[in-house]
Amino acid sequence: MTTGVRRRMGVEERREQLIAVALQLFSDRSPEDVSIDEIAAAAGISRPLVYHYFPGKLSLYEAALRRAADELARRFDEPLEGPLGTRLLRVMGRFFAFVDEHGPGFSALMRGGPAVGSTRTNALVEEVRQAAYEQILRHLGIGEPPARLRLVVRSWVSLAESTALLWLDGREIPRAELELQLVHDFAALAAVSAAYNAEMAGVLARILAHEPADGPFGELVARLASLVPGDAGPTREPAPDPMPGPAPEPR
Amino acid sequence: MTTGVRRRMGVEERREQLIAVALQLFSDRSPEDVSIDEIAAAAGISRPLVYHYFPGKLSLYEAALRRAADELARRFDEPLEGPLGTRLLRVMGRFFAFVDEHGPGFSALMRGGPAVGSTRTNALVEEVRQAAYEQILRHLGIGEPPARLRLVVRSWVSLAESTALLWLDGREIPRAELELQLVHDFAALAAVSAAYNAEMAGVLARILAHEPADGPFGELVARLASLVPGDAGPTREPAPDPMPGPAPEPR
């Protein structure tokens, strides 16, 4: 990315270079701590020339965040094939890879960073969330989701976001563990909603209908089931496990 | 709150009045849509006098958000008595009551609102989250939480926040249902973490050890367990499917 060789670039080429340089710098440090001077130096051009392409610091940040948001949203793309748990696990792998690569930039995007107060930045974040939300509904094959499913999907998207941000703060837990955990969290949140609502129970039954025993959903259910005492019911001993079986009952 | 009668107030009394008036207006409309003129009118004083007490719009907003954040944090206080699920359900009741009363103000606090870009506002939000986090650990009786428990508690706090924000957008689902759901979500997220980690399994076992069968945790476990066939485990028979549509696999 950095080069000491000055050469003439076209307008678009130069803008692309500056965005790439900025994103590269944001992967190690927060955008707030990266100056235009550093970006100019890394791009091998003068500070005024940076301003020629981006009228202010904010506009370069916004362009870089726009690029990052687009890339992140692209990682949600997943073919509509195979068990749902496996698809979601693959997406989580790409999501955490992005978070891993763009650590400080991701935090800045999600927390507002130096462009905080910019309604454009907030809109970008909402766009990424919306992309995730729509992808999930597409995979579930549900065109007009009931209110409770909308809530489960959106709140899970928010959970994935906060889990990634918390992970970045120290990276104490192996990434792969959290990728799998979030897949399970989705099933768990849907199951809780299904435990009290017949419509959600139907949705969950359809979701789980085609999951194989060795897929991530199947594996979780097996692990949890093994913790449940045989005589399931309110009078049994406390179990360390409030998790569902696959077929919720309507009320 | 509003009064046409002008009377002399002390400095602190006037500041308190203006904060109360602002919070009252923020409970119906977003702070962004409330002008200093309206606040002045509702307080029965002139616009310049408002500026006498608060040098700028932002400083009044910040004072009002400070007050709201303190009140919200106070609602997390709960005696260390009785089953954990019941305590958490009571806190959720007070939390949603706050969200209900302060709708637009709560959204503004959590989304940044007009004071976005203010590091003080961000710090306020983090303070509220931290207060919730510490209360939960206090009730769990865990002084030095392992990394996975910290993640579960913090990510659940974030889930509660986003669930409340999503609920405010249309209020389609009864509030009481979401209060109970969040208690269950906590148990579910802890259970997912416990399914793969022995330390978390120990924590969860301690949490659930003293929960009564008719408390919120016990009720959820019973409901979910009633969906699990008697011989829990990966080789059990398929559950009777109460729902129309494809039957779930017995994994």
TrEMBL record, chains A, B:
Signal peptide: none annotated. Residues 229-251 are annotated as: Disordered. The keyword DNA-binding applies. Keywords: DNA-binding, Transcription, Transcription regulation. Residues 240-251 have a biased composition (Pro residues). Residues 12-72 form the HTH tetR-type domain. This is TetR family transcriptional regulator. PROSITE patterns: HTH_TETR_1, HTH_TETR_2. It comes from the Bacteria. Residues 35-54 bind DNA. GO terms for molecular function: DNA-binding transcription factor activity; transcription cis-regulatory region binding.
